[in-house]
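for the record, two folds in this file. i put them one after another cuz i was lazy. first one right below, seq on top, structure tokens after. the second one comes after a little note so u can tell where it starts
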Amino acid sequence: MLLTIVLLIISNIFMTFAWYGHLKFKQMEWGHNLGLIAVIFISWGIAFFEYCFQVPANRIGFKDDGGPFNLWQLKVLQEVITLTVFTIFTIIFFKEESFRMNHLIGFIFLILAVYFIFKK
């Protein structure tokens, strides 16, 4: 169970950088003149590593492969990890974005979703 969660966290770190990290490229000296195609290929290259962790996480964690989670649980767990990683990423790299009360309330509802998905 712990290995699945750790692999999902690592995969989501790569995914977040692939999906949103490129938004900071223009602020970096080397990224001023990158075109969309270059940014897509860089993001795709980063996303490759996301898959290197996501696929094993799902295989190890899936109950039909000997893991503790059903498919619903894996998906909701992955979504909560994604939003947690995204929140940390945004607070660190996009300081102009604020974390507001409505975001917190939405996350509380997601935590409730995890509770209900895992409830027997």
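(here's the note) second protein begins now
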Amino acid sequence: MLSAESEALVRATLPAVAGALDEITTRFYATMFRERPELLDGMFNRGNQASGAQRRALAGSIAGFATALLENPGTRPDALLSRIAHKHAAVGVTDDQYTIVHKYLFGAIADVLGAAVTAEVAAAWDEVYWLMAGALISREALLYQDAGVRPGGSWRPWTVVERRTETPDAVSFLLRPADGEPAPRARAGQYVSVRVRMPDGVHQLRQYTLSSDPGGELRRITVKRATGDGAEPDGEVSTLLHETVGEGDELLLSAPFGDVFLDDPADAVTPVVLVSAGIGCTPMTGILAHLAALGSTRPVLVLHADGSPADHALRAETHALVERLPHARSVFWYERPGPEEPDARTGLMDLGDTEVPDGATVFLCGSLPFMRSVRGQLLAAGVSPRRIRYEVFGPDLWLPGTAA
């Protein structure tokens, strides 16, 4: 927890720091990458930098952590820390990099806020930073240990044994360890980082959820091509995977990470609700496959929204998995319905007449606007926020009310 002196100073200066965080993080990344360009090679995603997503995620995490320290001084925001730690482990963050970040972040704070950053104010925010960094370093060390890899060294080559087109913009890659060693332990709903070399020689990485049952020696990822809208560029990694990777090629994958997963025994009875939109279906398919492999008899409700049946990746597989589970059912929403799904509902997901099982654990994945809308509907239906677990693709920009 913060010292009493630092708590008073952070409380007094939080509005000013929070209000300037966008400018601070912009300057932080610009200066750090100018002086340490090697960090863009295999560590930071250039697409997230160009779109500003990484900058906003960093700002949100700093403000969220400081606010949580002030509102609940006797506790740490473990949900926020856990999510960040898993993301960091998936890209190979190491202890020494926290010192690098500290140098450039606090330099940017001093540049932007100027004389307002007295020695006492700087010391108070330094305490906030190292409380957060220390907690993350400890968590990440445990994650690396649990994965059986050294910090920053979880990369292994995997061979593509099958490539399958799911929709016009989504492709699945079935993978086997290329080194002949056993596949690392994974939990249904977790993700891996994929590290590829771009045409300009710079390595880039992206996280993709395991979209099949994580048991056994084969793993699958399902990749949607990320298309820019003019203001943002096309996704570098997804484009390269779609255009150049096929059967027999090798990919570098990290160990599996992610704190949103289903890891219950076969005899668990708690109902499960899987809610997704678009390519957010991938962790849900992995969870369904895991439940089917266990022979689970627990109640399962699958809710998915998409543009059309043709856009719905893994649609046929979802139906097949639901049929294998004795107490599972599915409901789909499509903005442009088609004859392939005569029972689907039209438009955006509306849970007004959908009964959510009492006491269910809800898994939620999709775009931020979708998750904000559906989470609000779930809360209005009486679902406890503690039972809603969500996954965000890319930097976590924080859903209101969930960081605590």
